[in-house]
Design goal:
With 354 residues, the chain is of the alpha/beta class. The chain is built from eleven helices and 14 strands. The chain binds iron/sulfur cluster. The site of iron/sulfur cluster has 12 residues, from loops. The site of iron/sulfur cluster (SF4) has 12 residues, from loops.
Amino acid sequence: MSLPQTLPIVNDSHQNLLAMTSIEISNLVAQLEWPAFRAKQILQWLYQHRAKKISLMSNLSKKDRERLQSISMIDRAKAPTVVNSQDGTRKLLFSLENGLAIESVLIPDDPRLTLCISTQVGCTVDCSFCLTGQMGLKRNLKAHEIVEQVLTAQDLLAEGERITSLVFMGMGEPLANVDAVTEAVTRLTNTQWGLGIPARRITISTAGFAPRLKAVAGLGINLAVSLNASTNAQRDHLMPMMNKLHPLPELLEACRAYPLDPNRRLTFEYVLLSGENDSPDDAKRLIHLLHGIQCKINLIPFNEFPGSPFRRPSDAAIENFQAILRQGQYDVFLRKSRGRDILGACGQLGNIPT
Ligand code: SF4
């Protein structure tokens, strides 16, 4: 039975197409008694063309666009405030409802351009060295709010510039919001109608939600584990909530069980804190802890922020730590700090009022 063409068929309010999954959009198309391929066209407009209005969907007839407009809309995030660092890093501040806000960071490193995105407002976890952790959790982001950070960042780029890698390392613990993160990854990676970002170019970083590692194992993304300690007691001190829930031995066991292709590796991130976890003994313990895991190690010298009791180690201590790990036959990389002057570097997000 055809429905009257003037009445909304789904509900009284206009639905945000971005808030719908691809299946929900297919269902909407079916309800409208349109051919199934219409769903793919709509999705392509949302993600590949980054359309902000239904009226731009030029391969839909005027009548169909009007019909779609009568029941739905594209409710894109408001334009963010952009804060520019001297080193070319750009911090994007997105305003949400009720005065909440999130941050994304665009990090150029020629020829690459990485976007670091948030998954929560604040964070479930309370890593003692992280500014975001001090905010507590305000709420989880929805899938479309995660994806919109990418759509908006791409809108801001110059013609021909494109995001080459995406890291879920902004505000929040991604695996505490795993359903939304999984749905977001689907939209980001889909090549038929989504953004078509290769899964290998996406890294999800967890503070150690051990039982949920397997929830993202099938996505084909890179997994980074924020380790930051060489003993359980040290991790209790630096990451109290996460380590109480999932102590270091449980986390390492989950890492050992994580299914990896022979040519893929886990990444362990290690924030170096002066006098806390940066001694030669820490480096030697790490060599033993990670033995047998296909991995590389990213060292992140602490990025100081006002009020933090932690300090960045000296360059000599950092180099020595790296050298010991390399003697243990690990690939060890030193993360360049970008955007420190705008509190856009790792662990510094959350200082929303700028
Ligand atoms: S380091 Fe990551 S997991 Fe820990 S408090 Fe900060 S945002 Fe949350």
